Amino acid sequence: MGNRAGDSPKPSAGLSRRTALAGLAMLPAALPAAAAGTVDPIFAAIDAHRQAHAVHLAAIDEAARLEVLTGENWGDITEQPCQDENDAFDVLLRATATTVPGLLAKLTYLRAIAEGKEAWMLDEREGSALHLIVSFAESLQNIGVMA
Predict the structure, then answer these.
(1) Rg over CA atoms, the chain
(2) Residue 39: helix, strand or coil by DSSP?
(3) Residue 144, pLDDT score
(4) Which UniProt keywords apply (predicted)?
(5) Range 101-124 average pLDDT
(6) Among residues 39, 51, 21, which one has the least CA distance to residue 97?
(7) Per-residue pLDDT at 122 exceeds 60
(8) What one-character-per-residue DSSP string does 97-120 give?
(9) How far is CA 34 from CA 5, 31, 102, 118, in A?
(10) Which contacts of 22-30 are long-range, i.e. CB under 8 A and separated by 24 or more positions?
(11) For the chain, what percent of residues have pLDDT higher than 70?
């Protein structure tokens, strides 16, 4: 099979994560919904990653600014924010949705990552595909689509 545009030069071997995410994102919103008023915990996982990512980017910018001012390497100030973002992303990958809106929010958020400059977060993390498959299967069970 040939190379997929925008991916590594390695030949593709089946369905890509990006294609799978795009397909799952097309699940109809008319699927059975969970009880009204239930807050899906996936929203907290998305928000936690979004915040950790912003803090990490701010730390990178600050390290660059300090390096320009002092001529020294300040990369060590990015280590903890980087680890915090990695941890939040791992939680997000493994998190299961309990409602259709939650599942669609996770798909939408991850699709934006997959289509943006941060696609490496999905492409280069060992185990990402398996964590996503398991979390989506459990999410579909949670919302009553799969038994």
Answers:
(1) 18
(2) coil
(3) 87
(4) Signal
(5) 93
(6) 39
(7) yes
(8) -SSHHHHHHHHHHHHHHHHSTTTH
(9) 38, 10, 10, 32
(10) 22/111, 24/107, 24/136, 25/104, 25/107, 25/108, 25/111, 27/100, 27/103, 27/104, 27/107, 27/145, 29/100, 29/104
(11) 74
- Residues in the chain, how many? 147
Helical segments of the chain, H only: 17-24, 42-70, 79-94, 100-115, 120-123, 128-142
Q: What six digits make up the tokens of 79?
A: 């280590």
- What does the pLDDT average to over 66-79? 94
Residue 88 to residue 142: CA distance in whole angstroms: 22
Angle between helix 79-94 and helix 100-115 axes, rounded to 10 deg: 130
Average pLDDT over residues 42-64: 96
Q: In terms of Cα–Cα distance, which of 134, 135, 131, 127 is closest to 102?
A: 135
Residue 61 has which token pair? 């910018």
Pick from 16, 14, 24: which is nearest to 6 by CA? Answer: 16
* Between residues 35 and 98, the one the model is more confident about: 98
